[in-house]
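Hey, I was hoping to borrow your eyes for a little while. There's a protein on my desk that I can't quite get my head around. The fold is given in discrete form, as structure tokens running alongside the sequence. I'd be grateful if you could look everything over and explain what you see. Here's the protein in full, and shout if anything looks odd to you:
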Amino acid sequence: MTEPSHRRRWMLQMQQPVPPATVFDRVAFLIGAASAVWLASIIAIQGVRTPWALIWFIPIWAITAYLVLPRLHRLLSDLYVPDYFFGRTRTSDGLLGDPVNLGVDGSAEQLDAAMASAGWHHADPITAGSTWRIITSTLTRRSYPTAPVSSLMLFGRRHDVAFQQEVEGNPKQRHHVRFWHCPPGWLLPGGARVDWLGAATYDTDVRLSLFTLQVTHRIDENTDIERDHVVETVSAGDPAVQVRMLRDFTTGYHARNGGGDRFVTDGNLPILEVNEVLPPALPPESSTAEPATAPALLRVPLTVSAAVALIALVALLQLIDVFADREFWSNFVDADDIAVTAVLLVVVGIFVLFTVGPLVMSLFVLRRGRRSRAVLIALITVEIVVMAIDYLNGSTVLGLDWTLLAASVQCISLLCLSSESAGAWVRRRTPENQPLASKIAE
């Protein structure tokens, strides 16, 4: 296909109406945002009424920082943050992220080979296992050279690959760079062409985000130093790598990224030319590639595994609660009227539908079931709406008890299932940790 045809196809894709699946995800996202605000408000109101009010600050902070604020940021940023390229990435919450400060010319295999020769490691995908490992390694100060990095967005998608170098075995400090493959026929402002764009920053410590209150890495203010570090190490790692510079790609400026960290840049864009790098006969081993015998759960995104675990926990507790209810089961034994028995059977059927049904659907979601995820979101939404109606009309009182716990779990499950990572998991037909070249070929 000729270059104009590539460019025309890219422009047409940008003008296409939003797919139904995306509309469904956005509706679920809005319902999840509303449920998160409602949940945080209820816990805050009930928490201040107890002598242990300070202890309830922890769940209120967690819900606000990881559920409420990210959703609000996303909703607002979609309105006022431009959705075109201007040299900045975006966080998964929609906030402006790190500056784009690096370009690459070459194939996926050549990029992998050049980075491997320079001593860079692939960052692990964000899963339940990698999240737990980075928490324990940070607390115990143990080395984790392939620790995952947070998602940043460019061209409307998260980074295609990320590389990092740990500093003296300290998981709090690391060099890292994310890369996005440019759309076919896409040109930089001014007409220059590159195959990849990257954002390189240096993590200095772990702290609370200024904007989202989440625990995150803090970056060094001078991002140009980290950009030059990537260029120097890759150039020294393979003599076939050449560098060309787009000077004054942007005007020099200072700003803050999505975590609230200040950064400065001179506006130059070095481009690594790896076209002459000879990749090995076999694709370089990636730290993100799980062994063929590894459990499939190791590849499941953290949001999906968390939702399934919460749904399973609630189903187990509800089953225990029902089977331990002697009064309920005695009605079956003492019921002589067929109509009464029929009503009880209907009640049991509804209970099974909303207890065992979500559990079964969640298992299919683990197997990338797209329709199962939609059904599961619908079931949880119905339960939340019914619970909210009962609370508003006074038939249900949400105190610091089992009812509030169930409401909390349902809200968190809906937020997890309506996340972008969960949607990408069920739509992607190949594992998230597939080789980089295969991902770009899709």
